[in-house]
């Protein structure tokens, strides 16, 4: 998943780079050394972001070769290129000496780690993978550490940010869930420079296949779940699983925390090649840590866990079994880096909500919730959870599916919505370059003709949210699903400003809604 780059954010590189000699890089990468002495002070893949002293990595792409932009990289101050034999001549023609290797993408991560002084080895690092829950777990971990006064940062779908040793907040511009390896090692170096102690990171399956997270051996890694998504990239669920499994090898982690609520997790617990601790919320599953009882409490819940050292009680700030699982995962990850005890339990329970994850934007007389659920399984969890919240009358959902992504999940999402909601409004998510009407049609194709749900198809996400507010009545709940905390909508290659939370809050505060958006008491 890509995020939007904030132009006001800080750059993903340290202020005072350590650097590395070109000859040393050549030896480490198994390439022929450059003919002259030079020092590399940064690494980048993008010729537009080259800074003086950079190693510029020219990689082959699906439609073009990075070496086509060698002249631009040279003009901006690159001192050395890393490329394959195909790109070598073009780099040299632009005046850039080149380190030539067979797999420059894999070598890029090694180069970035070396130039930045291998920062991952000097931070406590947490990696979280899974179809759903990555952002929630890393956010809860980071907010818990913040409450404990520990300088911590997070890298993921909602962006990259950290609090330094002085308590100052920093936001770094990134555009992917897991940044490309030069950005990643630059970010970790910057965090280390500001005396951050813990970095939590979402590790996507794309990142594992494309070497973005290489040269980071996480102190502890977590697997949340696996459901259908990203098959446009991986092709099969087996390939998707294998990508996730790669995180639980000695090359990527020292130990694992694995949720065994699904068969993929149970398989991973057997096949991981690092020590693994398991956890579950399923009543009949066997695990090292088992959730035994969940009691709703406000908009969240209190739950008990049976573990090797006895029974303990934890609090989840958001409703639903999946947020119980996320909270337990966060606790186990914190314990994995040596953070445990009553003060951690207290801070964990007060860690608060996660932006765009079951976020309550209006409370009365109509409850308004925004969630990032963009797979059939995540939508099922969100709707089932909201149905069980005390006082819920009808459940209305505004949903769609993203364009240029896994098309196979669209009918399944429509089926789930119609099965679990009273009113389904099918609309546009991020159509990207696809025809929005065709995507809506694919979603609707999964809705049975004899469904009991009231089904609407609406062209335009804003109009769909407005319709939901018009149709809702006292004690109804509206779920706007799919985009979460995103602040833009991608249509035809253009990102248009759009925030589900703001639009839903405004719709419920208008005629026919009169919503109360003061939700502080339930956050």
UniProtKB/TrEMBL annotation:
This is UDP-N-acetylmuramoyl-L-alanyl-D-glutamate--2,6-diaminopimelate ligase. It comes from the Bacteria. Belongs to the MurCDEF family. MurE subfamily. GO terms for molecular function: UDP-N-acetylmuramoylalanyl-D-glutamate-2,6-diaminopimelate ligase activity. Meso-2,6-diaminopimelate binds at residues 405, 429-432, 482, 486. It is found in: Cytoplasm. InterPro entries: Mur-like_cat_sf, Mur_ligase_C, Mur_ligase_C_dom_sf, Mur_ligase_cen, Mur_ligase_N, MurE/MurF_N, UDP-N-AcMur-Glu-dNH2Pim_ligase. Pfam families: Mur_ligase (PF01225), Mur_ligase_C (PF02875), Mur_ligase_M (PF08245). Residues 128-331 form the Mur ligase central domain. Its cofactor is Mg(2+). Keywords: ATP-binding, Cell cycle, Cell division, Cell shape, Cell wall biogenesis/degradation, Cytoplasm, Ligase, Magnesium, Nucleotide-binding, Peptidoglycan synthesis. It catalyses: UDP-N-acetyl-alpha-D-muramoyl-L-alanyl-D-glutamate + meso-2,6-diaminopimelate + ATP = UDP-N-acetyl-alpha-D-muramoyl-L-alanyl-gamma-D-glutamyl-meso-2,6-diaminopimelate + ADP + phosphate + H(+). The gene is murE. Pathway: Cell wall biogenesis; peptidoglycan biosynthesis. It is an enzyme of class 6 (ligase).
């Amino acid at each position: 998943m890509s995020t939007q780059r904030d132009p006001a954010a800080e750059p993903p590189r340290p202020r005072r780079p350590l650097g590395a000699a070109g000859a040393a890089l050549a030896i480490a990468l198994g390439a022929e050394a450059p003919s002259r002495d030079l020092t590399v002070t940064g690494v980048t893949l993008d010729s537009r972001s080259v800074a003086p002293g950079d190693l510029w990595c020219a990689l082959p792409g699906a439609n073009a070769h990075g070496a086509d932009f060698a002249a631009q990289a040279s003009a901006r101050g690159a001192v050395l290129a890393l490329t394959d034999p195909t790109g070598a001549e073009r780099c040299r023609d632009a005046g850039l000496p080149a380190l030539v290797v067979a797999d420059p993408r894999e070598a890029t991560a090694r180069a970035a780690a070396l130039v930045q002084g291998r920062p991952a080895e000097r931070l406590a690092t947490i990696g979280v993978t899974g179809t759903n829950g990555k952002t929630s777990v890393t956010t809860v971990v980071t907010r818990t550490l913040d409450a404990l006064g520990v300088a911590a940062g997070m890298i993921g779908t909602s962006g990259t940010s950290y609090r330094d040793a002085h308590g100052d907040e920093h936001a770094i511009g990134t555009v992917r869930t897991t940044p490309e390896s030069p950005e990643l090692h630059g970010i970790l170096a910057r965090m280390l420079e500001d005396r951050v102690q813990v970095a939590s990171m979402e590790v996507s399956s794309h990142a594992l296949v494309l070497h973005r997270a290489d040269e980071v051996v996480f102190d502890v890694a977590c697997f949340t779940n696996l459901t259908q998504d990203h098959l446009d990239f991986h092709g099969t669920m087996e390939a998707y699983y294998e990508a996730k499994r790669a995180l639980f090898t000695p090359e990527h982690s020292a130990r694992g925390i694995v949720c065994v609520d699904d068969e993929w997790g149970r398989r991973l617990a057997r096949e991981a090649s690092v020590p693994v601790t398991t956890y579950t919320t399923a009543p009949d599953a066997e695990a090292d840590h088992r959730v035994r009882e969940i009691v709703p409490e406000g908009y969240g819940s209190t739950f008990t866990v049976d573990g090797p050292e006895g029974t303990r009680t934890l609090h989840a700030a958001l409703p639903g079994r999946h947020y119980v699982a996320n909270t337990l995962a966060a606790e186990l990850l914190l314990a994995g880096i040596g953070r445990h005890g009553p003060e951690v339990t207290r801070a964990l329970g007060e860690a608060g909500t996660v932006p765009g994850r079951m976020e309550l934007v209006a409370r009365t007389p109509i409850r308004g919730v925004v969630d990032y659920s963009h797979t059939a399984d995540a939508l099922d969890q969100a709707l089932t959870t909201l149905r069980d919240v005390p006082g819920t009358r009808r459940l209305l959902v505004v949903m769609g599916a993203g364009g240029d992504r896994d098309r196979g999940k669209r009918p399944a999402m429509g089926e789930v919505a119609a099965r679990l909601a009273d009113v389904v409004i099918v609309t546009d998510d991020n159509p990207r370059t696809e025809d929005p009407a065709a995507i809506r049609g694919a979603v609707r194709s999964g809705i049975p003709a004899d469904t009991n749900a009231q089904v609407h198809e609406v062209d335009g996400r804003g109009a769909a949210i407005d319709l939901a507010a018009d149709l809702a009545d006292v004690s109804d709940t509206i779920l706007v699903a799919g985009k979460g905390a995103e602040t833009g909508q991608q249509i035809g290659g253009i990102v248009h400003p759009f925030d589900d939370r703001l639009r839903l809050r405004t719709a419920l505060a208008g005629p026919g809604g009169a919503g109360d958006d003061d939700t502080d008491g339930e956050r």
